[in-house]
Design brief:
By secondary structure, this protein is mostly beta strands. The chain is built from 18 helices and 72 strands. Strands 5-4-3-2-34 form a five-stranded mixed beta sheet. Strands 33-32-36-37-39 form a five-stranded antiparallel beta sheet, with no helix packed on it. Strands 53, 54, 55, 56 and 57 form a five-stranded antiparallel beta sheet that branches.
Length: 1081
């Protein structure tokens, strides 16, 4: 055979063997007959400049409208007519729109949903419309199913013919009376009236306000106002999910609002009313909320929530798109206008049952999916884990920064206001937002793996409304995706018999014939899967009324518990897989919802009167970013100082709380079982200082405790007096202030130990930053004690070792001398062996362990008899990305040659390092970049090597972080291996550890706390860590399950205080009230 032919044949075979088939195929309309395209044609009179939701698209509704066992498809359109396709089997569809009389009479349709409105066992169709803006006419239409593949439009009869700005609608039986009620989701448009304080939501507007419509048997009654549903002109409703979030048997509602209005988290009060509880359960939300969905992603039987936004992943799009507010605007929105914290990225909320949700989207890997519309959870590969599909894209990007700059020009704005002459030029300036859809594979640890391009095609387009169903009756989940200016897409799942499944449908008594609101708990091999039947999901769509579980290789399901909407239940046992079963209520029993409450025994109980410790820390108004705009986080907010000890020599624990700038310190003395504030004037004289750390101890061996206070706060700089630490000696007549050596540092930690064994306490004082020069390395000292007088021990190996945040004295090598272990930011943990009073660094851990370390504590976590070390880090739930191979980098240099240094943080992506921040942020500090890059597009997509000259970068100091995970150093024969904690402990920085026998079982545990808010809106807020009790390597209990209330609070320090010989936990919190917890025996 010819050698060239052999090579060609081999190449073809090699390609065929290595080309992996996608999990989903996309048959064409020529193959299926599903001929539908939502064509939108902009004109001078109607385009996205005239109607901001011009490209939101239509809707998709799936269901078996003729009860032949095949899932049919309804598609609504904006400028086209609606269409209904009957499934004929084998993925062949027939257009029966004209016969069915469902093409519609409105000029701009949006969401489409199916449900049995009248309880006759047939799916009806409700189609939303936008009416009354830009000449749009019509009304929301209700097509009642006649049972013969025809429908009768009956919206007026049922009082559902609203002529408002409707996005979608959702079916639910909110009052448990057996019929389906409707939540109508409307949206506002930008007017002068739609901007203002949060109180706008209380003034009802008929066109823009949402509506709760109670089914009164043949017609619907608007009860929105009496039910507590907001209906203001500022409600930009785009997403809605229904679920029993608090598991009390009554359906609750999550509404996603675009722009400045908060999302709504309506908890059903079980009396016909709802209460918005958003701020009580969510530390922050999406800013431009789009579609949302609900599923139990972690097998705890609780519904979790995803809410979509529009953060791009691609560097070019990211750097040319409008992002988050600056910190001043955020303060205005939250403090003056009353809105909640909102950030421009997807959010994944993990339900913690009646306490604040964990928010994990960055950790989970699903935060940035660009202009995202519909999110749908399903077990697409049937392995027992919830996967995630996200539709994506917009025809024109109105948030493009170059476009915004163009239309913000005063002259251009006048032309836009007075003529249509600029419209076409403006439209041309908006870039295309075509993008590929995302697909993520779920896992057991809250993380998702991006399978875009592997499970589904990565073809770019503009996709919106999406619905789920089994279109080919092969058991797995398929999808229908509505596109703009392109044929509707079928995503046909080819999992087939590669893994096992179970489908459940319900035959429930009329009028809720499809059993909307039914809960299903599946148990197999000790694993729980939970689903709840609500069909309206994602964005402007409703899915097939069916519940689907995947089981991988499991051959039989141990049991299925079905909890009906009327609070009864029944159990099916030993169910064969790979079938669809129809379940009807049979031999039901009353279901006790209290059995769903987790049974953890509370270990802590908050003390109502705080034992008299009514201290509340108030952070001063200083903002680090006003001086150094490019720093990654603040260092001025690391207080307050707190120290526990006997101040008045009565043998009882007293408490010293340091003050922020211009707020004096406070002392609380323990009296008869309570604390009382005691004014000590000499402490209050230093009120200008920012007290960060403090220590009560007897430094001069006179049996009276003294006080050492470390100051800082990053506001004061150079040799300003408030940077000097304070030392107070106690005498029998009170306290006197003694002189310390002069060193002007931002103190971060004070740890005392007699390192030289001379009989008095020496002190290590660490510092974490240099004011006005972030990135510079501060000085760290030992104060050598000589009978109560201190001198600086200089030129030690740790003096300029890094930005120190914590320190412990620990004889880690068991030689009889206590050694020093330091942790800090942009550095690895450092071990300094104490050789008879002199120190030398030892390399006993992996050198590639640089982190943003916050805390260290010794604890034998693996119970093997040697000491391990727990480390609090930044956590994995941030926009910082760090690995050993590709660390997070911070370039530190005087980039513009003006004598002041700047810091530029960079993540690794696709082979290069890119600044996290965009042109506006970088140029706010390095003004010369405005001349080099005259448009946003000109800098977008450029790495740091392309933005700055090589000569500048060569002069920069590069600081790195290789891991952001909190965890522990596992001791193996005095060599240490780092082991990360579970992901639930990675949602926020961990700032405090406390060891004690909290449960009185004779063995000590570690209590961990954290959260941190000192970042710009670009990074969001690290607010959802509820604290955790770490028992050992395998056992960790989150704080909200055992009585702690640490979510949404930045815990600075944990201490044990003893009152009447009973131990209590004192939690000191930055910019908030201190908390006291009793230990439950």
């Amino acid at each position: 055979m010819n050698k060239k032919i052999i090579i060609v044949v081999f190449s073809i075979l090699f390609y065929a063997c290595n080309k992996k088939e996608l999990l989903f195929k996309n048959p064409t309309s020529q193959e299926t007959g599903l001929a539908f395209e939502n064509t939108i044609t902009p004109t001078d009179d109607l385009n996205i400049l005239d109607y901001l939701y011009y490209y939101n698209g239509g809707g998709v509704a799936l269901g078996d409208i003729n009860n032949d066992g095949l899932t049919d498809i309804f598609l609504s359109a904006n400028q086209e007519k609606n269409k209904l396709f009957i499934n004929k089997g084998n993925l062949k569809f027939e257009d029966i729109t004209n016969k069915a009389n469902v093409s519609g009479n409105s000029s701009w349709n949006t969401g489409a949903v199916m449900g049995d409105i009248n309880g006759d066992g047939l799916l009806d169709i409700y189609v939303c419309a936008v009416v009354g803006v830009n000449g749009f006419y019509g009304y929301n239409e209700l097509f009642i199913n006649n049972g013969d593949e025809t429908f009768t439009e009956s919206a007026e009869k049922y009082k559902l013919d609203f002529d408002s700005y409707s996005s979608s609608a959702a079916f639910l039986d909110f009052d448990l009376d057996g019929d389906l009620d409707i939540y109508l989701l409307n949206h506002a448009i930008h007017t002068q009236e739609s901007f203002g304080k949060v109180d706008l939501r209380y003034k009802r507007n008929e066109q823009t306000g949402d509506k709760l419509l109670r089914n009164d048997g043949g017609s619907f009654t608007d009860i929105s106002e009496v039910a507590g549903i907001f209906g203001g002109i500022n409600g930009y409703g785009l997403g809605i999910s229904i679920a029993d979030f608090n598991q009390d048997g009554y359906p609750d509602i999550y509404v996603g609002n675009d722009f400045h209005e908060d999302d709504y988290y309506y908890i059903n009060n079980a009396d016909g009313t709802f209460s918005d509880q958003l701020k009580n359960y969510f530390g922050h939300t999406t800013r431009f909320s789009m579609g949302n969905d609900v599923a139990d992603i972690n097998h705890d039987g609780l519904p979790d929530i995803i809410s979509l936004d529009m953060l791009p992943e691609d560097e070019v799009v990211l750097k040319t798109s409008e992002g988050d507010d600056n910190i001043q605007i955020q303060k205005l929105r939250t403090q003056k206008f009353g809105y909640h914290y909102q950030f421009t990225r997807n959010m994944l909320y993990v339900n913690q049952q009646n306490s604040s949700y964990l928010e994990t989207a960055l950790l989970s890997g699903i935060a940035a999916t660009d202009w995202s519309w519909s999110s749908l959870f399903a077990d697409f590969d049937q392995d027992g884990e919830q996967d995630l599909f996200i539709s994506n894209g917009i025809s024109k990007r109105p948030n493009d920064l170059d476009f915004i700059k163009f239309i913000s020009n005063d002259q251009i704005q006048k032309k836009i206001d007075n003529t249509k002459l600029v419209d076409q030029e403006a439209l041309q300036m908006m870039p295309s937002g075509e993008a590929y859809n995302y697909m993520f594979k779920g896992s057991k640890n809250l993380e998702f793996e991006d399978k875009s391009g592997q499970w589904i095609s990565n073809k770019k387009g503009v996709s919106g409304a999406t619905a789920l169903g089994d279109l080919d009756n092969d058991g797995d989940i398929d999808m229908v995706v509505s596109n703009i200016n392109e044929e509707v897409s079928l995503y046909i799942n080819q999992t087939d018999n590669l893994s096992n499944y179970l489908q459940l449908k319900f035959d429930y008594p009329a009028p809720n014939t499809f059993g909307i609101g039914t809960k299903v708990y599946s148990y197999h091999e000790g694993k729980l899967q939970f689903k709840e039947l609500y069909t309206v999901r994602g964005f402007q769509s409703s899915s097939e009324p069916m519940i689907h579980f995947g089981y991988g290789a499991v051959q039989q399901v141990d049991s299925i518990k079905v909890v009906w909407p009327n609070k009864t239940y029944q159990t099916l046992r030993n169910i064969t897989i790979n079938q669809q079963i129809v379940v009807s209520p049979e031999k039901t029993k009353p279901f006790n919802y209290s059995t769903l409450l987790k049974k953890e025994t509370p270990i802590f109980k908050k003390v109502s009167n705080n034992l008299g410790l009514n201290f509340s820390h108030s952070e001063d108004n200083y903002t680090d970013f006003n001086r150094q705009k490019l720093i990654p986080y603040q260092t001025s907010d690391r207080g307050p100082a707190v120290a526990v000890g006997d101040i008045n020599n009565d043998g009882k624990d007293d408490v010293y709380f340091g003050g922020s700038k211009f707020n004096p310190a406070k002392v609380y003395l323990q009296k008869e079982g309570l604390y009382e504030e005691e004014k000590i004037q000499i402490f209050e004289n230093d009120s200008i200082n920012e007290d960060v750390v403090a220590l009560i101890a007897d430094f001069n061996n006179d049996s009276l405790n003294d006080l050492l206070v470390g100051t800082g706060g990053a506001d004061f700089y150079d040799k300003m007096k408030p940077l000097l630490d304070a030392y107070f000696i106690q005498t029998h007549t009170g306290f006197t202030k003694e002189q310390l050596p002069e060193y002007f540092e931002n103190a971060s930690v004070i740890e005392a130990h007699d390192y030289d064994n001379d009989g008095d306490l020496d002190v290590f004082i660490g510092s974490n930053s240099v004011s006005n020069n972030f990135g510079a390395i501060p000085n760290n000292y030992i104060l050598k004690n000589n009978k109560g007088s201190f001198s600086l021990l200089k030129n030690q190996p740790f003096q300029n070792i890094g930005m120190i945040t914590d320190a412990i004295w620990e004889d880690y090598n068991s030689d009889g001398f206590t050694d020093l272990i330091l942790v800090g930011e942009w550095m690895s943990p450092k071990f300094f062996v104490n050789k008879e009073g002199s120190f030398k660094e030892e390399k006993i851990i992996d050198s590639d362990l640089k982190g943003l370390w916050q805390q260290i504590t010794p604890f034998d976590i693996d119970k093997d008899g040697d000491m391990d070390y727990l480390l609090g880090n930044w956590g994995k739930n941030s926009k910082f990305k760090a690995t050993k191979k590709h660390p997070l980098r911070m370039y530190y240099a005087d980039f513009d040659g003006n004598g002041s240094t700047e810091t530029i943080l960079c993540n690794y992506k696709n082979g290069s390092y890119y600044p996290l921040l965009g042109l506006d942020e970088l140029a706010s500090q390095i003004v010369s970049l405005r001349k080099k890059f005259t448009t946003y597009k000109s800098m977008a997509g450029k790495s740091i090597d392309e933005i700055f000259e090589k000569s500048i970068l060569n002069k920069a100091t590069i600081l790195e972080v290789q891991t952001l995970a909190s965890g522990y150093l596992k001791n193996e024969n005095n060599r240490f291996e780092f082991v990360p904690f579970i992901n639930e402990l990675q949602v926020s920085p961990i700032s405090s550890f406390l060891e004690y026998d909290f449960d009185f079982d004779g063995k000590n545990e570690i209590l961990a706390a954290g959260n941190y808010f000192g970042v710009t809106p670009f990074h969001g807020r690290f607010d959802s860590f509820p604290g955790a009790l770490i028992i050992d390597e395998e056992q960790v209990i989150l704080g909200n399950k055992i009585g702690l209330d640490f979510s949404l609070k930045a815990v600075k320090k944990l201490d044990i205080i003893k009152v009447n010989n009973k131990p209590y936990v004192l939690a000191t919190i930055n910019n908030d009230k201190a908390q006291v917890y009793q230990l439950m025996e």
